[in-house]
Structures are given as structure tokens and as C-alpha cells.
Design a protein that fits this description.
CATH topology of one domain: Four Helix Bundle (Hemerythrin (Met), subunit A)
CATH class of one domain: Mainly Alpha
Helix content: 55-70%
Number of strands: 10
CATH architecture of one domain: Up-down Bundle
Distance between the termini: 52 Å
Oligomer: single chain
Structural class: alpha+beta
Largest sheet: 6 strands, antiparallel
Length: about 650
């Protein structure tokens, strides 16, 4: 009965989403306030109905209702509860329910917190959200129904893919989807603005918090996915330029550009056409990622779907939303006025350069991701585009972007002095150069790009701190005055500095990975190996039973100078229900680096293949991502993100209004 209630709630949500898509839009075109007012309660009720459907599917997984095809294919009665819950979205059908649930959540939040915006803009934006919801709910009901029954019901399920039986599944997809789907709000605002003719600083003020929220979650989602791959796959890698990884990187790059562009639009009433385009692009790339993962085009642990019908349906969705929005943009965009004027050397100019570099970097990832797929479709030839391609294309663009980053916040709006900013940053540049040269002198035979990366990272971190210091510290000022200035500084400025520092910390962690040590050995109990500054001893190898698996594990002792500093237990697990093995790496963090041990296959003579890694400063990669997200949250907490804008901005119109 619970399952049927969930299915019925999803059908009702589809019907109401169609109402939300049509009625408020028609009201906005005719000026009928009562029709426009339908959008708010409709969005709230749709969220409630989708929540009921999502909860019903989760209930079926928790109680192991194997009469559902979805539960039978992806669960097992002996599976731990946390994996029963996270297994809800560990498959195609459930992941699409999660997608729609988050879409409905964002629509409900706009309905609740969008009272200050003009009625027409809110009605059109929620209508666009309703159209999105209706399309994806229809996709679920027609091609990916999670409530399909099995008759007769099996006694036991097939279990979830063992690779997905990990805490990462409980964290990574929800964070990633909150980022992906969060950009739908920017998309809906862009469509509403083009339809309504409201393209002004007020629009940027309304859309920025939603873009920032999506960016924060997507940053955390990408970082969590990277760490999950790092410790789960057993190869010690955190980024493989896999098409599915790229599918999340592209909207992050576009969203970062959108965030900066919206700032210019809000502050200077400029870059209107470009900001609208980036809002469409960010969500379009999120939809593209959905197509790559859910259509079966890719063979990956991420790619749950293999039914061609689903791929055709998702391709139709891409054509509808991306093609439709770009057509609307092409029609209305040329009629927009350019807005504020600024000098090339200014903060606006720096943000324009930032946007150009980010979109160029996004384009290189786009080409590297889709070119092999297009070539295979046209010629049946398979090619692999990996790190060498991105090192030659993405790398130089990223390097220029990182070197230019500290200049932007230090430049004045409208017109800045590049020489003055360069003088203020000279200390950071000198320190970065000195550290890079010191590393080169100490490691003469190492790769030259590593010291360069460390130097750039130091330049970004110190440059961001110097910018904050210049705003807070004044010569001759007392400590109390300095503290008052620091407290009075808007949180968005602190947040920007923190995000930039976080990026520098991540770059530092990435640069240091080249100095890691890797050993691939054949070992037995009692063997000791030198691993960078540590000695690792395989003390014992044994077996034990888990809830729904059997594992072989090793007890490893890590010493430094003869002193025991850590114990590690890498393991190899075998899941009998799926006849599949997984690797559980043993990882211990020592300082900012990690010792990483992964077990391979056992040999007939009692030995076992073992991979051992020492990865200095590797934790900075994910610490930096968390600092970036914290900086975004700090900016989001700024009250200027929540208050209204000047009446001049609210009442401005950049497109001619239709005649009465």
C-alpha cells in the first residue's frame, strides 16, 4: 500500500507540475494576479508529493520489499541499513527520483523565499521550474518507474553493486545533485528574465544566492567524489579525467564564471547578455552530464542505464531545454542594452578575463569528453582522451587563470591601477618565486611543473591574504581599530578571500603529488618495505566474515625511525551474492600526507600483491575544497545577499514591454 501511495503521489505531482508550468505563465502574460499566484502553492504541494514518493521508495528499500524490481535488483536483506538507505539512489530509477526531489525542493524554496521579487518574474521562474519537473517526472513514469512490481516476489535480492556499498554513496550523489539541480534556478530565472524583459541589477541580486548555493554543493560533491574514487578503487588516484568526472567539472567551471559575472551585473549593471548566457550554459551542462551518465552512452560504475529508450528520451529533453532556451536567448538577447561601461583595467575587466578563461577551460573539457563519443558514433573507432590531452589544453589556461586570480579583488571598480596592484602583490610574488627556486635547488631532478605549481599556490594564498590585510590594517592604527575594521568588513569579502585561499591550498596539494612514492611488491607476513620517510611491515594476513561479504585483510604497521606511528588494515572483500570482489584500501593520515596500502590477488605460494604509496600533502586537495565551500557559505551569510536592491534597479526595464 505504501508503494502504491508513492506511485500515485508521483502521478499527482506530474499533473500539478503541468498546472504550474502553464497557469502562472499565462497569468504573467495576461497580467492576471490570481493566475500568477497559483505558482507558489503549486510548487509547495509538488514538493510534498515528490517527498511522499521518495519516502515510499526508501521505505521499500529499508524493509527489503523484493516485490519491487528496483529493490530486488539493488538490495539484499543482509545489507547494512545505511546502504539500504543510500542504495535508494544507487541505481538509475532511484537516482532520478532523487533528482526530481531536489528539483522540487529548490522550487519550493523559491516559492517560500521569493516574495520580494516582482510577481511576473516569480511566476515565470516557477513556471519554468514546473515545466522541468513535469518533463523529468514524465521521464520517470514512462521509462524509469521505480515502483514496478515483480510477481511472484523473490525471497532475496541481488544486492547493490559492491563498489557502491560505501559511505561515499550516502554523501556524494546528494551533494552533486544539489549542485546540478541548483543551477536549474539560475536557468529558470534566465528564461523568466528573457520572457519578462527584466534584465537588471535586481535580477542579479535575486539569482546570486541560488547560484552560490549550487556552487557550494557542487564543489563539495566533486571533492567527495574525488576522495571516494581515491580510497575505493585501490589505485591511489583521485582524478582520472573520466567522462563522468568531467560531466561534473564542466558545470562547476561554468557556474564559477556565472557567479563572478553576476557580481559584475549586480555591482555595475553590466555583462547582462553574458550572465544570461552563462545561466543557461551552467544548467545545460548539468543536463548534458545527466545524458552522459543516465543514457548508457558510457560504460562506468556511474552509468546505471543501458536502455536505448531512456537515452532517446533524455536526448529529447536536451534538445527541448537547451535548444529552446538558446533559441529564446538568440531571439531576445540582441535587444538587451549593454549596461555599465568600465575600463579594461578594472575589477570588472579582471572578472571578464576570469570568465573568458573559465569558459575556455570548460570548452577544452567539453571537447575532450565528447569528441571520442562523436568519433565512435560516426566511424566506430574508439580513442582514449586522457591526462596528456588535458595537460596540453586545460593546463595552460588554468595556469594563466591562477596567476591572474590575485589581481582581481585588489583592483578598483570601473577603473583600476594595475601598477599599484602589482606593487602590493610584489611581496607575494617574491615569496612564491623564492619557494619555487628553493624547491628546484633541493630537487634538481624532479619535474619542473611541481615547483611552478607550488609557487602559483603560494602566490594565490598570500595574494588573497594581502588583499584582506590591505582592507583591515592601516598604518598607525591601533589594534582595536584594526579589529573593528576586520569585524566591519562584509562577510562576502571574507568569503571571497577564503574561497581563493582554498583554491590555492588545493593547487598546493595537487602540485605535491608528484613527489609521492609508489611501490608494487609481492609480500608475505613479516616483510618490511621502505616507503618514503616511513617503513611499512606486513605483520599478518587473515580472513573474516562481514554482514554480506567475506574479506581477506592485512595488518600493517607503519614506523618512522623505528617508532610505530600507525596501524593500517587494507582488505580485499568478496560479495557472494554478486560474485564480485572489491578493494578496501588501508589509509592513515600522517601530518598532511597519507600512507596508502592496497591489496591485490593472493598467489599459490602464500604471497600477495601489495601496492604501497606515500602521498605527501595529498590531504590539502580536499581541505582546500572544504575551505572553498566555507568561503562560499560565508559569502552566502552576508546580509547583502538577502536584502532588496534600490528601487531604481527594481523598476528598470531593458526590453520593450508588450502593448496593452
Amino acid at each position: 500500500m505504501v508503494v502504491e501511495a508513492g506511485h500515485f503521489a508521483l502521478v499527482l505531482a506530474l499533473a500539478l507540475a503541468l498546472v504550474q508550468a502553464v497557469v502562472p505563465f499565462w497569468g504573467a502574460q495576461t497580467g492576471d494576479g490570481q493566475l500568477m499566484s497559483v505558482a507558489r502553492p503549486a510548487a509547495l504541494v509538488i514538493f510534498g508529493l515528490v517527498a511522499v514518493a521518495f519516502a515510499a521508495l526508501m521505505y521499500a528499500h529499508v524493509v527489503s520489499d523484493f516485490s519491487l524490481v528496483n529493490v530486488f535488483e539493488n538490495s539484499h536483506s543482509a545489507k547494512p541499513l545505511v546502504y539500504k538507505i543510500s542504495g535508494v539512489w544507487g541505481n538509475h530509477e532511484g537516482s532520478m527520483i532523487l533528482w526530481v526531489f531536489i528539483l522540487a525542493l529548490f522550487g519550493a524554496l523559491v516559492a517560500l523565499f521569493g516574495r520580494g521579487m516582482p510577481d511576473q518574474l516569480r511566476a515565470n521562474a516557477l513556471a519554468a521550474q514546473g515545466f522541468l519537473a513535469a518533463t523529468f517526472i514524465l521521464f520517470i513514469l514512462l521509462t524509469s518507474n521505480p515502483f514496478a512490481r515483480l510477481v511472484p516476489a523473490p525471497i532475496e535480492g541481488r544486492d547493490l553493486n559492491p563498489i557502491l556499498q560505501d559511505p561515499g554513496l550516502a554523501i556524494h550523489p546528494p551533494l552533486l545533485y544539489l549542485g546540478y539541480v541548483g543551477f536549474s534556478i539560475a536557468f529558470s530565472f534566465a528564461v523568466a528574465a528573457l520572457v519578462d524583459g527584466r534584465i537588471d541589477a535586481a535580477w542579479a541580486r535575486w539569482v546570486r544566492p541560488w547560484v552560490l548555493t549550487a556552487w557550494i554543493f557542487l564543489t563539495l560533491g566533486i571533492a567527495m567524489g574525488s576522495y571516494w574514487a581515491y580510497y575505493t578503487l585501490g589505485w591511489g588516484g583521485f582524478w582520472f579525467w573520466d567522462p563522468v568526472e568531467n560531466a561534473s567539472l564542466m558545470p562547476w567551471l561554468a557556474g564559477t564564471a556565472l557567479l563572478h559575472s553576476a557580481t559584475v551585473m549586480e555591482k555595475r549593471d553590466a555583462l547582462k547578455v553574458w550572465t544570461i548566457f552563462l545561466a543557461i550554459l551552467a544548467f545545460s551542462l548539468s543536463l548534458l552530464g545527466t545524458f552522459l551518465v543516465r543514457s548508457g552512452v558510457l560504460t562506468s560504475v556511474h552509468a546505471f542505464a543501458s536502455d536505448p529508450t531512456r537515452g532517446i528520451f533524455i536526448l529529447a529533453i536536451l534538445v527541448l531545454f537547451i535548444g529552446g532556451s538558446l533559441t529564446l536567448y538568440a531571439w531576445r538577447g540582441p535587444r538587451l542594452k549593454p549596461g555599465g561601461i568600465f575600463a579594461p583595467v578594472s575589477r570588472e575587466g579582471a572578472l571578464v578575463l576570469n570568465n573568458l578563461l573559465l569558459t575556455t577551460a570548460c570548452l577544452t573539457v567539453f571537447v575532450g569528453t565528447l569528441y571520442p563519443l562523436a568519433l565512435e558514433a560516426l566511424t566506430k573507432d574508439k580513442i582514449s582522451v586522457g591526462p596528456p590531452f588535458y595537460a596540453l589544453t586545460f593546463g595552460p589556461v588554468a595556469l594563466v587563470l591562477l596567476c591572474a586570480l590575485p589581481f582581481g579583488p585588489s583592483l578598483a571598480w570601473k577603473r583600476g591601477e594595475l601598477l599599484g596592484v602589482a606593487q602590493r602583490l610584489s611581496v607575494a610574488a617574491a615569496a612564491a618565486l623564492a619557494i619555487a627556486l628553493l624547491i628546484v635547488s633541493l630537487r634538481r631532478h624532479g619535474p619542473i611543473l611541481a615547483p611552478l605549481g607550488v609557487g602559483v599556490a603560494v602566490f594565490i594564498i598570500l595574494g588573497s591574504l594581502i588583499d584582506i590585510g590591505g582592507r583591515v590594517v592601516k598604518r598607525g592604527a591601533s589594534l582595536s581599530v584594526t579589529w573593528s575594521r576586520a569585524i566591519g568588513l562584509p562577510r562576502s569579502i571574507w568569503g571571497t578571500a577564503a574561497a581563493h585561499v582554498g583554491l590555492g591550498v588545493t593547487v598546493l596539494g595537487l602540485a605535491a603529488t608528484v613527489w609521492g612514492v609508489e611501490l608494487i611488491v609481492t609480500a608475505r607476513a613479516g616483510n618490511t618495505f621502505d616507503l618514503g620517510p616511513y617503513q611499512v611491515t606486513i605483520a599478518d594476513v587473515a580472513s573474516r566474515e562481514g554482514p554480506n561479504y567475506r574479506e581477506t585483510y592485512a595488518e600493517a604497521i607503519v614506523r618512522s625511525g623505528g617508532v610505530i606511528v600507525a596501524h593500517v588494515e587494507p582488505a580485499k572483500r568478496f560479495f557472494s551474492s554478486r560474485q564480485t570482489s572489491t578493494t578496501q584500501a588501508g589509509i592513515v593520515t600522517l601530518g598532511l600526507g597519507q600512507v596508502y596500502i592496497s591489496l591485490g590477488d593472493a598467489n599459490a605460494d602464500g604471497t600477495m600483491a601489495v601496492r604501497l604509496y606515500w602521498k605527501p600533502l595529498v590531504t590539502l586537495i580536499w581541505i582546500g575544497a572544504m575551505i572553498m565551500a566555507f568561503g562560499g557559505a560565508l559569502s552566502l551569510s552576508d546580509r547583502r545577499m538577502r536584502i532588496g536592491v534600490a528601487r531604481r534597479a527594481v523598476t528598470a526595464r531593458q526590453l520593450p514591454q508588450p502593448a496593452e
